[in-house]
Amino acid sequence: MQGKSPVLLVCEHASNHIPSRYNRLGLTDKAVQSHIAWDPGALDVAQHLVKMLDAALVAQKISRLVYDCNRPPSSPDAMRAISEIYRIPGNENLTAADIQARIDTVYTPFRTTLGQTIEQRITDGFDPVIVTIHSFTPEYNGKPRDVEIGILHDVDSRLADKMLGLADQKYNIQRNAPYGPDDGVTHTLLDQAVSRGLKNVMIEIRNDLLETLQGRHDVVIWLAELISSAIISEKEVA
Amino acid sequence: MQGKSPVLLVCEHASNHIPSRYNRLGLTDKAVQSHIAWDPGALDVAQHLVKMLDAALVAQKISRLVYDCNRPPSSPDAMRAISEIYRIPGNENLTAADIQARIDTVYTPFRTTLGQTIEQRITDGFDPVIVTIHSFTPEYNGKPRDVEIGILHDVDSRLADKMLGLADQKYNIQRNAPYGPDDGVTHTLLDQAVSRGLKNVMIEIRNDLLETLQGRHDVVIWLAELISSAIISEKEVA
Questions:
Q1: Which ranges in B65-184 belong to alpha helices (H)?
Q2: Neighbour tally for B170: CB within 10 Å
Q3: pLDDT the model gives residue B238
Q4: What is the secondary structure of B187-215 as a DSSP string?
Q5: Using a CB-CB distance cutoff of 8 angstroms, which residues of chain B are in contact with residue A199?
Q6: Element (H, E) at A139
Q7: What residues in A contact B199, CB-CB < 8 Å?
Q8: pLDDT, tens only, B113-172
Q9: Is the preceding omega at residue B72 within 30 degrees of 0, hence cis?
């Protein structure tokens, strides 16, 4: 079992891989490379955090355009037919069988693997801390975003509060930005962590910070320090 | 500090007391005695459970018609102007100052007391288990209800699942009935327990079961046994 720290990292949007049977969902290569298909840089950050924090990691290897694993099957965003300025032809007019196949082959295996990993770590004596790693685009629908790193939470804000309290001003840090629980982005947190009473947080990193090696390095060092400090601080309080 | 077990009972609708300055909210005595003003029998059940489980208890001493402490200030149900078949004249046309006064004198003190009690018990080494006790009317808007005891939960169903798995068939037990999280009744659970990662459940008892001493006795014995078993079972799993 990887990871001697309680931190379990999750990367739902790690990859832009679209299995060949989906014919790129009718998209251009440019669209498949873009942030609509994945969170560029997020997996790399997560993998470096694995090493720095001695953490475990569960990452999805299929594009969120096939199925967005941070959404339940009931969400209209689970298999979007439109994302920002892009039409996604391969997600239009899906049959019930198409939808069920995506749930069965993408969402359910990911959810099961993540749930089993958490349960195994509890069995192994850990009190898991769930940290999901995401990236977001500097502009959305043409509007620039000031926030550089978002610290997101749903009803259980224990870890997010601690991180926001400890964070220095190196980056523009904001609570529940550029999205928040009302946007439906806390599904993994609720479904996997809050449901089990586990401390949790979702980290959103503006992806222009991750474009250079130096930029990624800086973000990873900063995040590793902040997550460690918040967890130690949590332990002292408990 | 009362209570050597981890169980902290909560009774938001314990009392039908309306402070005299509210002039009974314009209601008849009959309405103030009815279930719209409180959960008849719930406090008595909670007080007996305190003894049987060696639990702590936080109960609201003011009617939910003045302020329903199982609702946040943002909820339209926090100070209802209509409840089932009753108009509540004293809740019509409230000014912003009226609303704020009720929040400040009823909701906030209750929420603060409950939160501080939980924090103190955590400081004292407990891992609190939050159990809220409610009762409901056998008929609602003329329609009879089959469910006798509801086991309610929001996103963290750990304790509810355990109780539902262990419960015998003495009563008609149902999950999230006659209400559920979509009806906004899990505010206390979310705000006080789920936010802290604490196991929690809301118990709804059909109030005709509580009309006789024998009926209350039977329900209390049954609930005490079920709650204890579920908590012990939870410990074994952990």
A1: 96-102, 108-123, 158-166
A2: 12
A3: 43
A4: HHIIIIIGGGT--EEEEEEEGGGGSSHHH
A5: 197
A6: strand A139-140
A7: 197
A8: 999 999 999 999 999 999 999 999 999 888 999 999 999 999 999 999 999 999 999 999
A9: no
List CB contacts (< 8 A) between B156 and chain A. Answer: 194-197
- ipTM score here? 0.81
| Residues A18 and A72 sit within 8 Å (Cβ to Cβ) | no
Distance CA A56, CA A9 (A): 6
- In the 3-class helix/strand/coil scheme, how is A29-70 assigned residue by residue? HHHHHCCCCCCCCHHHHHHHHHHHHCCEEEECCCCCCCCCCC
**Residue A197 is nearest to which of B156, B190, B191, comparing CB atoms?**
B156
**Does domain B7-237 match CATH 3.40.630.40?**
yes
Q: Is the dihedral angle over the CA atoms B20, B23, B28, B34 positive or is it negative?
A: negative
Taking residue A182's Cβ as centre, other Cβ atoms within 10 Å add up to: 9
pLDDT value for B214: 95
Q: What is the pLDDT of residue B198?
A: 98
CB of A197 less than 8 A from some CB of B: yes
Is A236's pLDDT higher than 60? no
Check B155 against A194: CB less than 8 A apart: yes
Instruction: Give the helix/strand (H/E) hosting A119.
Output: helix A108-123
Q: CB distance A197–B197 less than 8 Å?
A: yes
Q: Does A195 touch chain B (CB under 8 A)?
A: yes
pLDDT at A144 over 80: yes
Q: What is the mean pLDDT of the segment spanning A100-112?
A: 98
Q: Is the pLDDT of residue B177 over 50?
A: yes
Q: The tokens of A82 are what?
A: 């439109």
Contact B107, B64 (CB under 8 A): no
β partners of residue A151: A175, A203
Radius of gyration over every alpha carbon of chain B, rounded to an integer in angstroms: 17
How do residues A111-126 score in pLDDT, each as one tens digit? 999 999 999 999 999 9
The full set of domain ranges for chain A reads: 7-237
Q: What is the pLDDT of residues A188-210, one digit of tens each?
A: 999 999 999 999 999 999 999 99
